[in-house]
Predict the structure.
Amino acid sequence: SQQGEEDPQALSIQEGENATMNCSYKTSINNLQWYRQNSGRGLVHLILIRSNEREKHSGRLRVTLDTSKKSSSLLITASRAADTASYFCATVFNTDKLIFGTGTRLQVFP
Amino acid sequence: GAGVSQSPSNKVTEKGKDVELRCDPISGHTALYWYRQRLGQGLEFLIYFQGNSAPDKSGLPSDRFSAERTGESVSTLTIQRTQQEDSAVYLCASSLGRFQETQYFGPGTRLLVL
C-alpha cells in the first residue's frame, strides 16, 4: 500500500514561476525523500530530509518537513522547461523499504 | 562509475508465458529492490534483498512472482504465467545498505502482456 499522497496530482506553470508540491503521509518516519521521474522510466533521487530536520535546500530545490502534520513540501524556484517530470515523495520507517506516494506531474511551459 | 542497469529495456510477451527480468546493481551496494509501476501510477514495492538476509517478499502480488539474487550482485525477477494486468514498468534500485537510504534506480523494463 502507498504511504504518501502528493498534492496536486498535476501542475502546469510557465518557465520562471515557482512550483510547489505537497506530500502527506500516514505513519512516523525516519526520513522522507523526493524523487523525480522523466518519461515513466528510472527515478532520480533529489533530496533527503530526516525526521529531525525542518528544512533543506539543494540548488533551486527547497524541502520542508512538518512531522506534527505528517507533511512535506517541495518547492522548485525559477522553474525551467527541463523540470517537466513527475515528482514523488517516499518515506522510510524502521526498515529500508521506501514507500512511495502517488506523484505530482509537473509541466513547465517555455 | 556505472549505474544500475536492467535488461531487457522492453519486453512483449503473450499471456501465459513466463518472463525473466534482470537487474545489475551498482557494485558494492548490498541492498536491492524491485518495484512495479503501472501506467500513470506510483511505485509499488515488490521485494527487497539485503546482503545475506532473507529477502522481504511482502510486496509480491501473487505466487506467480519470484525473485532471486546471487550474493550481492545480479537479481532476476521472474513472472510465471503472465497476465495482462502484469503489464507495467518494473524498476530495480540499489543502495549501499541499511544506513544509506538513498536508492539509485535503473531505467526499468517495460513489460507488455498481450
